[in-house]
Each structure stands twice: as structure tokens, then as C-alpha cells.
Amino acid sequence: MKFKRVLFSGVAAIGALALAACSASGTDAGSDDSNKPYAGQKLVVTTFGGDWEKAFVEAVVDPFTEETGAKVELVTLYSADALAQLTAQKASPQLDVVHFSGGQEFNAATDGLIEKIEPADLKNFDDLADVATAGLEHGEGPAIQLAPIGLVYNTESGADRPDSWLDVFDPQYAGHLALTDLSNTYGLLSMLRLSDVEGGGIDNAAPTIDKLGALVSKGDAIVVPTSPDLQSAFAQRDTWLAPYSMDYAGTLKDAGLPVEFITPKEGAGASLITANVVSGRDTTELAKLFVDFELSPKAQQVFAEKMRYSPVNLKAEISGDLAKEVLTGDELDSLVTYAPGTLAPKRQSWVDAWNTAITN
Fold first, then answer.
1. Which listed residue, of 10, 63, 331, 352, carries a Cα 20 to 30 Å from 188's Cα?
2. Is 150:264 a contact under the CB 8 Å cutoff?
3. Domains, in order of start, for the chain
4. pLDDT tens, residue by residue, 69-120
């Protein structure tokens, strides 16, 4: 499948190292795994905790353990901290599979912290959307989850249904608009899509940042830092429109809020979660098998059903009303993604410009 990917090389800053909370998962203690191919082996795998981890265990960990006999130890570790830990432990790594959601796989690959995964390592490779494997050549792990970024609209607002990124600037939404802080990846990707549509693109995002900041400084928009804050904005602060992710729009609907996710006519952005095999471990074969499990149609189906991530395996079957709430198949063609190295050298300057704009 074809998709748009904006490329630029660079190096991202490493976040501070955080303590990790660990949990073990696998088959029951009484089960007999001795005849299974990887019985007695163990993988240490990072997760993001919470609902993500619950879906991850159901989609991947439990079936992987059942089929292989290997044990999986889960470590709650967020992306910047995971990269910092890999860097600090380069001589003696303690993790086997690491998940990144902020583009850190670019740095990890550049610094030799993760193993290159070849197409032949993935039995699901031929069934994957191009967006899932675009980073393999550089040595990055495949994208296992994809969250489209578009417009979240309050269907009971009485305002016209938006269809363009530029509707963010429509006066009818003034005072009822929520913008996500640019320190949040969803906020950053939304800004970049707006800059693309306005003609500035990634090389000249300053005019768009200034326009968005003006909405805030005039009181036409509020700023939310996190997903829970966005839910509060729709539930308690009379928000009608917010650029944000498709999966979280589903969370808002599940909470009883009257919202709809809209893919703008200019195309949605996309936030990617990648799975990466750590270098310097003696579990490389098993770790690559684990990543392949994450890309299987069944795992992708569970991710879609539980978290409303768009499946990157084109053979994943999504049925019923849920099929209307995730992008699948050819619908992924319109997505615009940004290679991690594109964002790294500019990100802090964008955040600084944004902080200045919203306080003027």
C-alpha cells in the first residue's frame, strides 16, 4: 500500500530514566510447557501499562506463551525512558523487546541499540501495510499499531460538521475549540498536518504555530495537555471540536460523550507504535518471533477491538459497527506519517515557539 511519509534525518533528545514496574505473564504454574519449542526461555518486554497492557496480554502475550512455552516478563516503561535505559545498558542490556510511541526507534537504530529486522523474519510481512514496514531499511522495528490523527467533533454542538483541517480556524468554533499542547505527540502531529495544508509544511511551521497560539491567547481555544484532559474538555467545558486521535475518540464515545471522529479531506496524520528487538541479547530469534506475533491478524483484531487502533495487517477482520470506527485497508492510503528523524531536530523549537505564542 502507498502512503505519504515525510523524511528528514536527525537525532532526538533522550528522556530521563524512570523506574520500571514489572509484572510476569504466561501460562498457569500447573501447565506443562516442557514439550513446547521455547520452553524454559524468557523474554523481558516493555509495555505502556493500563488498558494498553490488558489488550496486549490478550492479543499477544497469552497466545505467544501458549504456543511457544516461553515466559514473558512485562516491564512498564514509557518511550523516552525505555530509550534512556537501552542507552545506559548498551554493554549489558536487560530488555528483549521494546515498544516506542514517540519515534525513539530512529535513535535506537542509529545507535545500534536494536536489531535490524528483515522481511524474511516476519511471516506476516506480505500482509502488512507499507506504513508498518517503512522503517525496516533504517533498522527500526515495524509499526504494530496505528492511531489516525484527525478531528473529534461534538455531534450535539449544533455547529456544522467539519471536513477540513482548516475548520480549526472557523469562527463558528471559537470558544469551543480544544488544542493539545505540542509537548504531546498528538498535538504536534495535528499542528504539522495543519501546516502541511496551509503550505508551510515541516520546514516552515512557524506561521501555523502562531495562528494556533493566537486562538489560545484570544480565548477562542483552550489547551489540554493529556487525553484525560481532553475528555474533561468535552464533558465539562463545552468543547465542540478538537484535533486528536481516532482511538481516543472511541474512548470518549465509550464514556457516553456524543463525539465523532472525522478524517479531514486533506488526509489524516498517524501516530505509530513500533516493536523493536534489543541488540546484544541471546534471545534474538525468540524476540523476533514475538514481534511477528504482534503483527498477526488475530493480534491486530484484538488491538482494534480493545483500543481502536487501525490494523496494519490487511488480513485482520474487523466486523460490525467497530469497522466504522477504525481505518482499514485502502483507507490507510490517505495517511501522512513523519519519519522519526524528521521531527527530532525541530521538535524543541516548535514547542518553544508554541509556548511563546500561547502566552502573548
1. 331
2. yes
3. 4-146+271-330 (3.40.190.10), 148-269+344-359 (3.40.190.10)
4. 999 999 999 888 999 999 999 999 999 999 998 889 999 999 999 999 999 9
